[in-house]
Design a protein that fits this description.
The complex is a heterodimer of chains A (about 400) and B (about 70). Chain A has eleven helices and 18 strands. Chain A has about 400 residues and is α/β, with parallel strands linked by helices. Chain A has three domains: about 200 residues, FAD/NAD(P)-binding domain, CATH 3.50.50.60; about 110 residues, 2-Layer Sandwich (D-Amino Acid Oxidase, Chain A, domain 2); about 45 residues, no CATH class. In chain A, the strands form three sheets. In chain A, strands 1, 2, 8, 9, 10, 11, 17 and 18 form an eight-stranded mixed β-sheet that branches. Chain A has a seven-stranded mixed β-sheet with strand order 6-5-13-14-15-12-16. Chain A starts with a strand and ends in a 7-residue tail after the last helix. Chain B has a single domain, classed as Alpha-Beta Plaits. Chain B has a two-stranded antiparallel sheet with strand order 1-4. In chain B, strands 2-3 form a two-stranded antiparallel sheet. The longest helix of chain B has 5 residues. With about 70 residues, chain B is of the alpha+beta class. Classes of the chains: A alpha/beta (about 400), B alpha+beta (about 70). The structure holds flavin-adenine dinucleotide.
């Protein structure tokens, strides 16, 4: 007979979204089991490790030893490398910390375990269990051995791979233009500025950007995201990144000590993130900000709501799609408008020529903007290059 | 059985262990959800795979080949 486990809430994936969900479900009284296919939570890292910080309190995360540096702001480099500086005041905290992602993920998993969640490593979900159209758990393998886990509520927190939701029939497939192929080197012996996270836009990274996120003096994550619809052949993300590094002496002299890859969704919010017996959270529900490519914050914010709703559904014995509307309403109220707005902005940015990028950043040189909103930026651009703003009429 | 190519889709798809960094980009982009990643092993369900090559492009290091 196949071994069988049973729990109230089963969380598949121990990334930030999964651990947050597990923690808040356990805190609210549910029996929680979180499974993770890796042997070590948070490792290998698949992240640039930059994140804002204004949301941490909201979800109950206390800053810890996982912080590498606190940055003052971000710098956007136009194709001709004119710089637009965004600081905390003008951006509303868009950038805050560069972190040690493996340490961060472990800290969140420890929080979840301390709240009462069970954690199983080397345990991969391989399919969902369905009964009468309802998801009632997963088939899994632990150290290669198959078994079944039954749960009142199953949570797909399996990241960009997003297989649990797709096994359950939830619509999370992506269009080519809504995905980025990413590669990053952690480089030492580079001249990075620890005060800023840097973003380089334009042809250097079609439909995406090159980032330099400083971890300490001389050490930085140097990475790239390229929109999948703009990729023609093999290993293009690597070629673009290597080209960019070769052209920048401050980084060309560096040594790579770690290689990180991955996929990032840059899509509109999904239409459905829950069904009978199941909810999706984090990258699995395509919650990454389509403009910045950042997904840690949104995954954690939605994770808290997801965990609370999961526990309540267990309590009331109502793990239904109808009941999970409470989750849908909650995460959408908090995140959807911005996701949608930033998706529109991303679509626009992806269509701009290098010349237009340069004009926009040039128009903002020396201009003091009280707050860096799309509207304020376009007003400033309009003053210098009225022809450029014609392309943006829908935003005004 | 995974790994058994059908006559129609006889072109073999594989990920090179020497290049692969096991990042999972291919898994997430596959429109048919037919790629699996263990920590250090990628497998393709060749019966489902239509050789659309989206994973080939998404792979940041060029590890996937259809031959
Ligand atoms: C190169 C790169 C750079 C990035 N840079 C940034 C950045 O600077 N800032 C930022 O905010 N975001 C960044 N992101 C995005 C960010 O990494 C994700 O949004 C974030 O990790 C999402 O958290 P999650 O919990 O949803 O998923 P993940 O962190 O991906 O966690 C999912 C977990 O599920 C596990 N899993 C998957 N399938 C199964 C299964 N079948 N069974 C059991 N376990 C499973 C995985 O092993 C993994 O541990 C970057 C992404 C990439 C690829």
């Amino acid at each position: 007979m196949v071994k069988e486990l049973a729990t109230d809430v089963l969380v598949v994936g121990a990334g930030p979204a999964g651990s947050m969900t597990a923690k808040w479900a356990a805190k609210n009284g549910a029996r929680v089991l979180m499974i993770e296919k890796r042997q070590e939570i948070g490792s290998p890292v698949r992240c640039g490790e930059g994140m804002s910080k204004d949301w941490l309190k909201e979800v109950g995360i206390t800053p810890g030893r996982w912080i590498n540096v606190e940055v003052e702001g971000a710098r956007i480099f136009s194709p001709s490398e004119k710089i637009l500086e965004i600081n905390e005041k003008s951006a509303g905290n868009e950038v805050g910390y560069v972190v040690e992602r493996d340490g961060f993920d472990k800290a969140l998993a420890i929080d979840a375990a301390n709240a009462g969640a069970e954690v199983l490593l080397k345990t991969a979900a391989t399919q969902v269990l369905k009964e009468g159209g309802r998801i009632v758990g997963v088939r899994a393998k632990q150290f290669g051995e198959p078994f079944e886990i039954r749960a009142a509520v199953t949570i797909g927190a399996d990241g960009f791979e997003s297989q649990v939701g797709r096994w359950a029939g939830l619509p999370t497939n992506l269009a080519l233009r809504d995905m980025d192929s990413c590669l990053q080197y952690r480089m030492t012996n580079v001249d990075c500025d620890v005060r800023y996270c840097d973003f380089y836009l334009g042809k250097v990274a079609p439909g995406g950007y090159v980032w330099v996120f400083p971890k300490e003096k001389g050490l930085a994550n140097v990475g790239i995201g390229v929109q999948l619809s703009k990729i023609q052949g093999m290993a293009e993300a690597r070629k673009y990144l290597d080209d960019w590094i070769a052209k920048h002496p401050a980084y060309a002299k560096g040594r790579t000590i770690d290689v990180v890859g991955g996929g990032v969704s840059i899509s509109k919010p999904v239409t459905q993130a829950a069904a009978d017996g199941i909810m999706l959270v984090g990258d699995a529900a395509r919650m990454i900000d389509p403009l910045t490519g950042g997904g840690i914050a949104n995954g954690c914010i939605a994770g808290k709501i997801c965990g609370e709703v999961a526990a309540e559904a267990v309590h009331l014995r109502t793990p239904t799609k109808e009941f999970f509307q409470k989750y849908e309403k909650g995460w959408r109220a908090r995140l959807e408008e911005k996701l949608y707005r930033n998706w529109l902005a991303k679509e626009k940015l992806c269509s701009l020529s290098d010349e237009t990028f340069d004009k926009i950043v040039d128009a903002l040189q020396g201009v003091h903007l009280e707050k860096l909103t799309v509207h304020n930026i376009l007003k400033a651009v309009h003053a210098k290059y009225p022809d450029v703003t014609r392309e943006f009429e829908e935003f005004l | 059985m995974p790994g058994t190519p059908t006559a129609k889709k006889s072109r073999h798809i594989e990920s090179s262990g020497q290049l692969c960094i096991y990042c999972g980009a291919c898994v997430g982009v596959c429109p048919l959800n037919c790629i699996y990643l263990d920590e250090t092993r990628i497998t393709f369900d060749e019966k489902i795979c239509t050789r659309c090559e989206i994973c080939v492009k998404a792979c940041p290091v060029g590890a996937i080949e259809i031959g």
